[in-house]
Amino acid sequence: MASKVSSSSIFQSLKRYIKKPWEITGPCADPEYRSALPKATEYRVRCPATTLQKPIVPTSDPETVFDIKYYARDQRRNRPPIRRTILKKADVEKMMKEKTFDVNDFPKVYLTAKVEEDDNAIGGGYQK
């Protein structure tokens, strides 16, 4: 056990005199140099979640207080439910018999003139 103690004390004494290569020359060798890495005790003194002051929550009428809940403000879910009806084949046939179609119910035909082909076109309209 004495050899362990003596070897560690020798190592500690040598550590004082032997420097790392970057501490011999360069910016780290300057006596005014401070390491940019903070120590563990300096890094985060207090937790970010801890508050320095107790929050002051204003109180007023419950109707005028803004509701922070998402689902209360979500307009997509605020719609009335969609009414769905299932039609049987007999119902559709009955509706089709009752319905009469008029010419004005359909869109107008956009092409009313007849297209005339030129029979004298050589090579389908391309000249050779």
Automatic annotation (TrEMBL):
The protein's name: Ras GTPase-activating protein-binding protein 2-like
